[in-house]
Design a protein that fits this description.
This protein is mainly α and 288 residues long. The protein contains eight helices and three strands. It folds into two domains: 203 residues, Alpha-lytic protease prodomain-like (Up-down Bundle), CATH 1.20.1510.10; 76 residues, Alpha-Beta Plaits.
Length: 288
């Protein structure tokens, strides 16, 4: 299975799970008088639309290079991640405003059965986080990483709701708003994770060269190619699930242009074979 198909299947897994959980949260929240659960449901609905955006972005970013996009379409992935962050911020603000309204308006305490619902949700969301995060690391996908953190955010907000409902249920009169304060805590956590998702995507768009381990690996491989005496500049930029590399290779200065050209192709082929996630590799020959 190709990387793009594996990524797409991972997102579909997330999308279906979020849709089911949104229905469960809304139902339990309405009948259980828990705004923290309803807030959780709102986030899950937003996550469904965010997952759809991620799916579209992954499909587009996996398109091969063409005349107008010689480096491929991978930059679409972090741009989609930015949209996902916007969705999360909007949902956080909505949840926060509604929680505030509930705090200043008297209401009933949540029903105890909502705790059972939340326990199941927390378990499922943590499992989903682990599955999607492993896939994001395997595929080097910032969009999938954002998708994974959606699951972790949902798990943490559910934990907050769980604690809030326990306080509201067992604290008695005057503690009804604990559920709503739990929703506010969820808002703070969502906004914090927005930054965690946004920062790597911004780094990718700005072509930050901060891939030390990959740079070291490339230099080590280069020294195994016959004719290569060393390396100088090594610039790396990420686009989608690929890394584009500009590498200066040192060769004996007396070599012919033809021989230098042959060595550069050997080096490029070796790098692409040893590191499959490399996309475009540009080798510049320097005299040693």
């Amino acid at each position: 299975m190709s990387n793009s198909n594996l990524a797409a299947r991972t997102v579909i897994f997330s999308m279906l799970g979020n849709a089911l959980l949104a229905a469960i949260k809304f139902t339990a929240g309405i009948f259980g008088h828990s705004y923290a659960l309803i807030a959780d449901g709102i986030e899950s609905v937003v996550d469904v639309f965010a997952s759809l955006l991620v799916l579209v972005g992954l499909r587009y970013s996996s398109k091969p290079a063409d005349e107008n996009h010689p480096y491929g379409h991978g930059k679409a992935e972090p741009l989609i991640t930015f949209l996902v962050v916007v969705f999360l911020i909007i949902s956080a603000c909505t949840i926060g405003w509604q929680a505030y309204q509930h705090i200043i308006t008297p209401h009933e305490s949540p029903r105890p059965f909502t705790l059972i619902v939340l326990a199941g949700i927390i378990l499922w969301k943590e499992i989903s986080f682990q599955v999607v995060m492993r896939r994001s690391k395997k595929l080097n996908s910032s969009a999938l990483k954002a998708e994974a953190w959606h699951h972790r955010s949902d798990a943490i907000t559910s934990v907050a709701a769980f604690v809030g409902i326990i306080i509201a249920v067992f604290g008695g009169e005057g503690f009804e708003v604990a559920d709503d304060y739990a929703a506010l805590f969820a808002v703070a956590f969502i906004l914090f994770n927005c930054y965690r998702i946004f920062r790597p995507a911004l780094s990718e768009v700005m072509d930050e060269n901060n891939y030390e381990e990959l740079t070291k690996h490339i230099r080590e491989i280069a020294l195994t190619v016959p004719g290569v005496k060393g390396t100088e500049k090594c610039f790396i930029r990420k686009a989608g699930m690929e890394y584009h590399v500009d590498l200066h290779a040192l060769v004996v200065g007396e070599l012919s242009v033809t021989e230098g050209h042959r060595i550069s192709h050997l080096l490029k082929d070796r790098l692409c074979k040893e590191i499959p996630e490399l996309g475009n590799v540009l080798i510049h020959i320097e005299p040693f």
